[in-house]
Structure formats: C-alpha cells, structure tokens
Amino acid sequence: MPYLLIIAAYLLGSLSAAIIICKLMGLTDPRTVGSNNPGATNVLRHGGKKAAFFTLLGDLLKGLIPVLIGQYLNLDYETLVLIGIAAFLGHLYPIFYQFKGGKGVATAIGVFLGLHFYAGLAFVATWLLMAKGFKISSLAALIATALIPLYFYLFTHSLVLTYGIIFIAIMIFWRHRSNIQNIIDGSEGKIKADDE
Q: What angle do the packed helices 40-47 and 17-24 form, to 10 degrees?
C-alpha cells in the first residue's frame, strides 16, 4: 500500500495545474509566455488573478492530499516524507509533460502543511512577510525555503522529517537558479501593486 501511494503521489504531482487551468480558461499555455514556467506567478502575470489562484490551489492540493491520505492511514514519518517528495518531484519532473515542470513552491507548501500544519503555516507567513517587504516573489519564496528545515525541526524535533524537508529545500533552490542570478543582477521581476 505505501508504495502504491508513493507512485500515486508522483502521478498526481505530475498533473500541471497551470497548464490545465489555462487550457480550461482559454488562456495561453504558460510554457510559451513570460518565464515559460508552469506556475502561479507566471500565470498571474499573463492570465490574471483568477487563473493564478486556481493554479496555486491546484498545485498546493496535489502536495497536500497524498500526505493527508498517508496521515489518515497512520503511516510513519519515513513513508510520509517519501510520499511528499514524490508529489513534489512529480511537479518538477512530470511524466505527462516530458519531465519539464515548474519550480515546486506551491506543491511544497502543500507537502509542508500535510506533514505539519504549523510548520507549513510558518512558511506561508514568512513568504507573505518577505513578499510584502521586498516585493519580489522568488526572493520571498527562497527566504522561506531557507528557513523551513529549521521550522520543521523546532516543531517536530524529527530528523527524518527535517532531512526530507532539507532535500525539498535544496531542490527549490536548484530550480530557482535563474531567479537567484536575476536577483543578484537586480533584474528579477517585482510584485506589482495591483497583483497583491
């Protein structure tokens, strides 16, 4: 059963909310505009708030639901972490889209909330505060990502969970390589007042 759930989590993670929502709403494929990233931020810039909201919700839920199912089945931390990582990697490397996916922040939030609600909430609060202060979505996400292993350790004192979260954090930083370079160069796009 746990192995089937891990595989199912990956397959669910492989469904791109951005691509599906944009197609349903008659919008341009997010892989062909802006940053070419199938994620909520790119959808917001080119498809509007409504499409971005549903993209964010869809990506979050595909990380949250498999972990919650694992919680309901009373699976151990090791298995729960693997389920969460599988859903997350499905978003990054989706089998349905030639293994070319998004950057994983929204799906990671779903995983974080499923593994420990308050740690996940701390991530969201950090992101919101940093986004409000710096007006740069990617920078806010990276700061929150850098802190999430600490949040998990403080809330759970579980090394298994913390190590799993460190892996997810490293992958998020890896996927944001171009954003990090843009932040250093001062060319990273900012959150506009009407986007907030």
A: 20
Q: Is 144 helix (H, G, I), strand (E, B) or coil?
A: helix
Query: Distance between CA atoms of 138 and 183, rounded to whole angstroms?
Result: 9
Indicate the domain borders of the chain: 2-195
What would the two tokens of residue 180 be?
Answer: 């990090």
- Put simply, whether the predicted model's pTM sits higher than 0.85 gets the answer yes
Residue 120 CA to residue 109 CA, distance in Å, equals: 6
Q: Taking the CB of residue 5, how many other CB atoms lie within 10 A of it?
A: 20
- Over the stretch 117-154, which tens digit does the pLDDT of each residue have? 999 999 999 999 999 999 998 999 999 999 999 999 99
The token pair at 137 is 């979505």
What angle, 0 to 180 degrees and rounded to 10, lies between the N-to-C axes of helices 159-175 and 77-92?
10
Residues 6 or more apart whose CB falls under 8 angstroms from that of 41 comprise: 35, 52, 137, 138
For residues 65 and 63, give the distance between their C-alpha atoms in angstroms, rounded to a whole number.
6
Question: What does the alpha-carbon distance between residue 48 and residue 55 come to, in Å, rounded to a whole number?
Answer: 11
Whole-number Å distance between alpha carbons of 3 and 15: 19
